[in-house]
Amino acid sequence: MAKQTGPYGFRGKIGDVVGRQINGQLVVGKPGGFTKETWKNNANNPDYAPRKEASEFASSSSMAKEVYRICDLDLSTSHRDPKAYKRLVAHFQKFRILDRSNPKGKKRPSIGAFHHLTGFAFNTQSSLFDLIMPPHLFTGTELSYEFPGFQFLSQLPTQANTIEFIGYAVEIDFKNLTCINRISTYLTKSFTELSEHFNFTINSHSKNTLYIVAIRFYDNVSDYLYPLSDRFFSPMRIVAFKE
After folding, report:
1. Chain centroid, CA 142 distance in Å
2. Can you say how many angstroms the Cα of residue 189 is from the centroid of all Cα atoms in its chain?
3. Contacts of 27-32 spanning 24+ positions with Cβ under 8 A
4. Would 241 disulfide with which of 50, 62, 112, 114, CB 3.0-4.6 Å?
């Protein structure tokens, strides 16, 4: 860097040199050096590391919010416990830290985080959430989920006589960290229709699909179905992820 001499000084870039005014003195030097942008992204800036962490955390919380909102609105209160969202954020944070495919400052939840979401219970207060863990089978783009009917009978709420199985299949857009193209599948059965084993088939997408199963109970009175909103009998769980 050198002082500018002569009657006409300049500020700005001309060719391969840059003119600046520092402490009232016009100087000339090469492009680069100290600027607002370089300081903003300088590792020595005390605000730099927290800002990077905040950006990475935002990717985890954003993805958690997308998964948290997959279910129907009328299931929001009954099928999710108050800490479900925080548990999802903690899960994505753990796997965001393990991300090796993106540089520091741009780490984000990856496919591995979704594989390890299998078994996640949105409502740990439900005494029945362990029922949504039987074996399941993929057939093309469908997930066939098998329920042991007789096993249900000993644990069903006495005030209900009808059961509804709800399946959600959403495609995960990893580029934008969103859940897209939700497909919902519903199956309603009276308790008398529960056989020893029966299948619940969820239609789905061809790739990067997350599957959720929820169970809702009804009291059938004069051909009208009244849903039980008791969180104790309202299980919902992530059952699979398929790339």
Report:
1. 21
2. 31
3. 27/1, 27/2, 27/3, 28/1, 28/2, 28/3, 28/4, 29/1, 29/2
4. 114
Q: One-letter amino acid identity for 178?
A: T
Dihedral pair phi/psi, residue 206, rounded to 5°: -85, -20
Residues 6+ apart with CB under 8 A from 135: 146
DSSP string, 55-94: HHHHHHHHHHHHHHT-S-GGGTTTSS-TTHHHHHHHHHHH
Alpha-carbon span 87 to 52, nearest angstrom: 22
Q: Is the dihedral of CA 23, 29, 35, 38 positive or negative?
A: negative
Give the tokens for residue 96.
């965001």
Q: Give the C-alpha distances (Å, rounded to integers) separating 230 from 79, 106, 127, 189.
A: 9, 41, 11, 19
Q: Kindly report which listed range (28-32, 186-190, 191-195, 212-216) carries the lowest average pLDDT score.
A: 28-32
Banded pLDDT at 9 (limits 50, 70, 90): confident
- 13-17 contacts, C-beta under 8 A, 24 or more apart: none
Helix axes 84-97, 48-68, angle to 10 degrees: 130
- Other Cβ atoms closer than 10 A to 100: 8
H/E stretch holding 152 reads: helix 149-153
pTM over 0.85: no
